[in-house]
Design goal:
The protein is α/β, with parallel strands linked by helices. It has 9 helices and 7 strands; from the N terminus they run E-H-E-H-E-H-E-H-E-H-E-H-H-E-H-H. It is 49% helix and 13% strand. The protein is globular, with a radius of gyration of 19 Å. It starts with 9 loop residues before the first strand and ends in a 5-residue tail after the last helix.
C-alpha cells in the first residue's frame, strides 16, 4: 500500500504583498510550509504566490482582503476553512503608520489604523489560537515596532498600537506555557520598505538614522525568534542599545528625543 504523504504545515501571512511580510512568507515556504498570502493588492499577491510556488514547490493561496475592515478576520478564516486548510503559523504583519499632529488627523484614518494595527491582529490571533492549542503545536509572530517601547509624538497612535502589540504578545505567550504554542513580538526599527512614505514620514530624522536593516534581515531575525518561541525580539544592535537607553532615561527625555526623531529636517 502506498504511503500517503503528510500534509505540510500552513503559514498565514498578512501584509504579504511586499517588504517584511513577503520576506517572512518566503522563509516559511523555504522552511516547508504551504503559505496563505493576505493583503489588499491582488496583482502583487499573485506575483508573490507565483514566485513562491516556483521557487519552493509549496501550495500558495491568495486571499485579497482589507484588515482595516472589522469583518475581515472572520471572513479570512472562513475562506481558509473553505479551502480545506488549517493555520499552523500565523504571521500578523499587516500594519500602517500615520504621521502628524494627532489633533489634526482625520478621525476615520485614526480608527482605521487602530483596526488594522491592533484590533484585527487581536481578532485573528484569537480565531487561530484554540485550534493550535488543541493540536499541541503552533507559532504566532506579531510584527510590532521598536517604537512600541516609547511614546511617539507626531505618530502618537501608531506608537501606542505597537506598545499594545508588544504587551499583548508577551502576556499571551506567558498564558500559553506548556501548550507547545508560542507568541512572539518582532520589534524592528526603521526598515527600507515603503512604510515611511505611506505614513507621510518623508524627510523625518528617524529615516536618516544609520544602521537601518533591510526587510530580509529583519524577517530572518523575527522568523528565527518565532521558531524558538521567544516572546520579544529586537533586530539590530543599534536599536537594542537605543531601547535600553530609553529604559534608564527619564520619560520626559525619551518623549522629547522621540519627538525630535519624528520631526522633519530643516530644508
Amino acid at each position: 500500500m502506498a504511503t500517503v504523504p503528510a500534509a505540510r504545515p500552513v503559514a498565514l501571512v498578512t501584509g504579504a504583498s511586499g517588504g517584511i511580510g513577503l520576506e517572512l512568507a518566503r522563509l516559511a515556504a523555504k522552511d516547508g510550509h504551504d503559505v496563505i498570502l493576505v493583503a489588499r493588492s491582488a496583482d502583487k499577491l499573485e506575483e508573490a504566490a507565483k514566485y513562491l510556488r516556483g521557487m519552493y514547490g509549496v501550495r500558495t493561496e491568495v486571499i485579497v482582503a482589507d484588515l482595516a475592515d472589522p469583518e475581515t478576520p472572520v471572513a479570512i478564516m472562513e475562506e481558509v476553512a473553505r479551502r480545506g486548510m488549517t493555520v499552523d503559523v500565523l504571521i500578523n504583519n499587516a500594519g500602517a503608520g500615520l504621521w502628524g499632529l494627532f489633533g489634526r488627523q482625520e478621525p476615520r484614518q485614526i480608527l482605521d489604523l487602530i483596526q488594522l494595527n491592533l484590533t484585527s491582529l487581536t481578532h485573528l490571533t484569537r480565531l487561530v489560537l484554540p485550534g493550535m492549542v488543541s493540536r499541541h503545536r503552533g507559532r504566532i509572530l506579531n510584527v510590532a515596532s521598536a517604537g512600541g517601547f516609547a511614546p511617539g509624538p507626531l505618530m502618537a497612535v501608531y506608537f501606542a498600537t505597537k506598545a499594545y502589540v508588544i504587551h499583548f504578545s508577551e502576556a499571551v505567550n506567558n498564558e500559553l506555557r506548556g501548550t507547545q504554542v508560542t507568541v512572539t513580538a518582532l520589534c524592528p526599527g526603521p526598515v527600507a520598505t515603503g512604510f515611511g512614505a505611506a505614513a507621510g514620514m518623508n524627510g523625518v530624522h528617524l529615516q536618516e538614522l544609520p544602521g537601518a536593516l533591510d526587510a530580509a534581515a529583519v524577517a530572518r531575525v523575527g522568523y528565527r525568534a518565532m521558531q524558538r518561541g521567544r516572546p520579544v525580539v529586537v533586530p539590530g544592535l543599534a536599536m537594542k542599545a537605543l531601547i535600553l537607553a530609553g529604559k534608564v532615561s527619564p520619560r520626559f527625555m525619551v518623549t522629547h528625543i522621540t519627538r525630535w526623531l519624528q520631526e522633519r529636517k530643516a530644508t
